[in-house]
Structure formats: C-alpha cells, structure tokens
Amino acid sequence: MLQLRSAAVAAVLFSAAAAGAQQTTAVAPAQTAESRRGVGDTSIFAALDLYPSPNVYRTGDGRPGAHYWRQRADYDLRATLDTGGKSLSASMTLRYTNNSPDTLTFIWVQTEQNAFRSNSLNSLVFAQGGRFGSRNFEGGDMFDHFNQVVNGRSAAVKLRDNGTVTKVDLAQPLAPGKTATFDVAWHFAIPEHGADRMGRDGSLFELAQWYPRVNVYDDVRGWNTEPYLGQGEFYCEYGDFNLSVTVPAGYIVAATGTLENAREVLTTTQISRLATAAKSDKPVAIITAEDLTSGAARPRKTGSMTWRFKAHNVRDVAWAASPDYQWDVSSWQGILAQAYYRPSAAVNWNDAADQSRMSIQEYSERWFKYPYPQISAVEGPISGMEYPMLAMETKSRDKFDLYNVVTHEIGHNWFPMIVGSNERVHFWQDEGLNTFINTFSEARRYPQNGDQMQRAAEERAQIEATQRLNIDIPIELGPDRIDPRKLGFTEYTKTSVGLQLLRQEILGPEAFDDAFRAYINRWAFKHPTPTDFFRTMESVGGQRLDWFWREWFYEDPHFDQAIESVQATDSSGVQHVVVVYGNRARGVLPIRARFSFSDGTTQDFIYPALVWSTNSSRYLREYDFTGKTVKRIDLDPDRRLVDVDRTNNSWMAK
Ligand SMILES: [Zn+2]
Q1: Could you tell me the distance, in angstroms and rounded to a whole number, from the CA of residue 3 to the centre of ligand 1?
Q2: How far apart are CA 215 and CA 165, in angstroms?
Q3: How far is 128 from 294, CA to CA, in rounded Å?
Q4: Are the beta carbons of 302 and 323 closer than 8 angstroms?
Q5: Is 252 exposed, middle or buried (0-12, 13-18, 19+ CB in 10 A)?
Q6: Dihedral (CA of 441, 444, 448, 451) sign
Q7: Tens digits of per-residue pLDDT, 85-119?
Q8: For residues 494 and 553, is the Cβ–Cβ distance under 8 A?
Q9: Ligand 1 mean position to 56 CA, how many Å?
C-alpha cells in the first residue's frame, strides 16, 4: 500500500506541532512480558521476552522448526463482470488442506466486501469520504450458496456473519492431513471506491479482496480473525489458483498468474509481439494507442470472452479489466515485466514496463530471486496497492513519482507475498521492510536524485522531526490503532530508518545483508512473526539486540546524545583530554565523535551502542594527542544517527 506523500506528511507534522500535540513515551505493550526480566530491571538493555517461546514449530534462532506447518488453500475461481450493472458474480471450488495437528470443526473466511455495506465497522471507524472509508455504499458479499463436498455430495454448511469475517461450521470435521472441498457462489455490487484497494473508474474495474479467502490458522494465534477495517491489509494462505474472468469481448484483462488461453483472447499479432517481448529487455508494445482506436486491439468486439490464468504458490489473486488498456511488455531472465495503462496516463506510464523490469531485477539480485513468471503494473483509480504479480497504481506527476510507487508496490512481492507475515497485526513487517529495500531500488534507477545513503538520510531526517515535534508513536501498535496520518512515518519510514541504522551503524552491511537474506530464505512461503525476524537477525548477524528491538519497535524512546564535559591538560607536548559523552534520552545508539585538531586534521572515534550498557547516561573516554591539540568535537557530524537536540552535540576549545 502506498504511504501518504511527503507534502501530506509535512502538513501533519506542522499541524500537530501547532496544536501543541504532546505525547509521552509509550509503555511496552503486553508482548514484552516482564516475567524473565531481572527484578526491577527497567533498562533499555534488559532481556526482551519475545513470543512465542522457542518450540518445535519455531526455533530459538529464528528458523521454522522441525514440525513447522502451515495450512494450504487451492482455489478454482470463476468470475463474471457485469460492466453495465457494476457488479460481480462468481463461484469457486476451494480445497483447504489441514496441515496442523488439530482437528478443525469450523473455519473462518474473509468476507471483505462487507466493509462496504451500511453500518459496517469500517464505515463507523473511518470517515466516509476518507481513503479507507466506504463512502456510504450499499455493497457486501451475498452468498448464493456455500457447500462442503462430503463423499461426493454437496452439503450446506452453517455460516455466521461476523462482518468482514464469516464463520463456517463444517458439515464434517477436518482431521489433520485431510483436505476439505467447498463449492461456493456469491455476488456483490462493486464499490466505486473500495478503501483504496479495489474499485472502478468509468469502464475500468480493479478487483481485489473479492472472493472468500480462508483466514490463516497458525501455530501462534490459532484463527486470525482481525476484521478488515480498511487500513490493515491482509493475511492469507498459500496455494495454487486457476482463475477465469469473463468480461465483454472488448475488454483487456490483467491478473495474477500466467495467461493460459492467449489464442482465444489475443490476436495473432499480439501473440507474436509477446514472443518478441519475452526475449527483450526493452519494452515492446503489445497493444498500442492506435490499436485501441482502430479496433485492432481485440480479436472480436461483441459478446463476452473468458480469460484464463494460472498461478502457483501465491497467497492471493487480483485482476483489472478495461477496454482502454495499452499494454507494454519487456522481460528479465524470461520473466515478463508488463504495464497496462490508459492513453490518458501514457505520458509517464510508457516507462512503467521498464520500471517494473528494473524493480524485479534489483530485488532479485540483491535479496531473493523473484519466483513468479511475470509482474504486471496496472493503471487505474487505486493510488497504490499490491497483490502477487500485480501492482495497482494511479497516474503520476512524473517518472520519478511513478517509480516511487511502482517499485514500492512491486517490492511487496517480497514482503509480504513471498515472506508471508501477518499484515493486519504487524504492519511494519511488510511496509517497513519494503520501504527499506525501496531505497536501494530508487537509488539504482535514478542516481541523479541521490545514492542509497542519501535516500536513507532523508527518511532519517523525517523521523528525527517527528520526535522533535513529539508526534511519534510506537511501531508495534499495528495498523488499526494508528491515526491514518501517522501511519506512513510510523510503519513505513521509521521501520526503514531502523533497518538502515542496523545495517550501517550497528551490524555492518555484510552481517546485515547475510541475516536479512537468511530471513527471506527461511520464511519464503511461510508465516514469520516479528520474533522470527528478530531472532534471525541476531543469530545470523551475530549480536544480541534486545535493546534495539525494544527501542525501535516496542517502546518509542527519543535519542539525544550530548557532550557533557571536556577537560584538556597539556604536558611535555602531549595533550591529555577527558571527554564525558552524555545520553540524555532513553534511546541508545552508537557514538560517532569527530575531533578537529590544531593542525587542520580530523579523526573520528566510533563506539558501539553497548558502551551505554553499564551507565546509560554517561560514558567517559580519555585520549592523549602528541604534537596537536583538540580544537573542537562534534557528535554525529554527518547525521548518520537520530538526535532530537543537536544544539548540545558540539564542544569548542576556548
Ligand atoms: Zn506498501
């Protein structure tokens, strides 16, 4: 999901400051259990009790355990779009495999279109005209039937409507290792604005969160039944999908998966252009603007047409359909990088296929090889939203602005589409990790706007500003407990800043990258918790980081290093200097001190954050310099850290 743009964030910062917003340091949430901590040890360095305790499912060093399991959900989805009636009717065969050790007598499914019916929780929590609001639309999932197939016969199951989740009492209990099959049909009216995740614009439709997806049943929390309020995204099981979408013949469909019936829905010219594009690192136009006006875009124009897609090992499918899509394709290592856009967006979107190609190349080369056969960027009313192999974006001001969104939404294929964390509870595990990897991608695409360190420095300055204005909040609050105006800088930017600090100032790039790749490899196509991330970073990175996880994710302390005192004495050409470094806030970071000398030279002294572990407010060092004297000392002169008060960072000799 796209975060608020910087101008909007700045407006929040200044309005909050003007209102004199006050915020005190939050207490650690319940996850930070007190039990194993030393009695009365309230230090930032105290051991952090993570959850769950290591067990056969999740190991103490952050790997899936010997008996790790997750459920599996395979879907055959059939959808028919009524463009005149602005509605969707659909059916599915769902095969749900119980890999847990538990016999299940019920399952939960997501009925997220219910967010858009009158008096939904969504409509009561969010302003109706807002980004995540329902805009007073009378929609909602309407089931035509919901059957479980038992011994070859369909048996109706009992449903309990709980808003955006629905409880399904099974007609027959589901034992460990067994698969239950369901036959479901439903329909709904398509909202114009579906919480900025799906919707329509004239004849263009974007469909997402549109079928009854099985909720995740996991070893950590059992059934994850958090409602869909709009801001929190989703948490789904992996499986294989067959998708068929029936639309008017004049429509072009983009979807998660591989197109299976090109010969039925494309012209021979388009099929031959696609073959060229599959070997081209430059975009090839499959459907041009002229094709749209001349009628060459479609093999026929009357009646309906069914597009069939297949997707392997994904946690969701989404699609978009428009009669006005231009279509460009290039490729990287045989993976198709595609862009679908209306002529009205062509001025920047003619770069989108190439932007998509560079995004999958960058993330593949740096972190983990993209495992899917294609990626599609689709233009439409949704400002920025991610699904497996499909990224939705809107028109943009310029190519930089477009890349910012394209590479962000495509980056979500790594977090959370490959690494399947629970977005509705731990928002930062996808938005924050993704924002961090975006800094490398943006720097690679447009180095003229700054290298990765410069991108990270800009994010750090923003987080420092939120602390100075006292409007910052803890990251681990989760998406549904955060003022939407604070969501961006808290979940996206602050997480990214923390990972940058961890990489550059705490673990070092080599250790960080080793650990970060290990996290992706260990948890690809699985369901990691924050604990699994923390343990992997410690175990592979090689440092205990209780203090960092506490200060960066659970609590929200500020950072303020200072030079408390400097005493210099000269004897026989040697200057003896005693410096007391101060830490005036609860948060701790490494010390970066730059000494400037009488001979015009400088020297940096860097100390790890652990120097604060025995005395978290004062750290004393003595130095001897021969043939030169100290003229000034500056803390963090290159602004590589976060510091809410930089006026106490310098000392100058009289
Ligand atoms: Zn996002």
Answers
A1: 7
A2: 8
A3: 41
A4: no
A5: buried
A6: positive
A7: 999 999 999 999 999 999 999 999 999 888 888 88
A8: no
A9: 32
pLDDT at site 123? 82
Distance in Å, CA 2 to ligand 1 centroid? 5
Residue 277 has pLDDT above 80, yes or no: yes
Mean pLDDT of 609-624: 96
* Domains of the chain, CATH where assigned: 6-60+437-554 (no CATH), 68-237 (2.60.40), 267-304+323-418 (1.10.390.10), 561-652 (2.60.40.10)
| Collapsed DSSP state (helix, strand, coil) of residue 502 | helix
Helix (H) / strand (E) element for 578: namely strand 574-583
Mean pLDDT of the chain: 92
Please count the residues of the chain: 654
- Residue 409 CA to ligand 1 center (angstroms) comes to 6
Residue 416 has pLDDT above 50, yes or no: yes
CB 316 within 8 A of CB 256: yes
Over range 481-497, report the average pLDDT: 93
Name the residue type at position 241: F
At 504, which amino acid appears?
Q
| pLDDT surpasses 90 at 649 | yes
Could you tell me if 324 and 292 are in contact, meaning their C-beta atoms sit under 8 angstroms apart? yes
Say whether 16 sits in a helix, a strand or coil: helix
**Omega of the bond prior to 416 within 30 degrees of 0, cis?**
yes
Question: Which residue's structure tokens are 């952090």?
Answer: 48
E strand spans, 342-472:
374-379, 384-387, 390-393
- Compute, in angstroms, the gap from residue 1 CA to the centroid of ligand 1: 3
CA 196 to ligand 1 center in whole angstroms: 12
Can you spell out the DSSP letters for 590-640? -EEEEEEETTS-EEEEEE-GGGGSS-SSEEEEEEEEES--EEEEEESTT--
CA distance 588 to 624: 27
Phi, psi at 273, each rounded to 5°: -65, -40
Ligand 1 midpoint to CA 190 (Å): 23
Q: Is it the case that residue 51 has pLDDT exceeding 90?
A: no
- The CA 378 to ligand 1 mean position distance, Å, reads 15
Q: What is the whole-number distance in angstroms between the Cα of residue 287 and the centre of ligand 1?
A: 29
Q: How many helices (H) and strands (E) does the chain have?
A: 15, 32
Of 496, 516, 502, nearest in space to 456 by CA:
496
- The pLDDT confidence band at residue 265, using thresholds 50, 70 and 90, is very high
Say how many Å lie between the CA of residue 348 and the centre of ligand 1. Answer: 21
pTM exceeding the 0.90 threshold for the entire prediction? yes
Report residue 420 as tokens.
């399947």
Q: DSSP secondary-structure letter at 221?
A: T
Ligand 1 mean position to 100 CA, how many Å?
Answer: 30
Task: Please tell me the predicted confidence (pLDDT) of residue 19.
Answer: 45
Tell how far the Cα of 54 is from the centroid of ligand 1, in angstroms.
Answer: 30
pLDDT, position 60 = 94
Tell me how far the alpha carbon of residue 430 lies from the centroid of ligand 1, in angstroms: 7
Place of tokens 């991330």: 533
| Residue 164: DSSP 8-state | T
For residue 403, the CA-to-ligand 1 centroid distance in Å is 13
- The pocket of ion ligand 1, defined by CB under 5 A, consists of 1, 431
Query: Residue 13 and residue 5: Cα distance in Å, rounded?
Result: 13
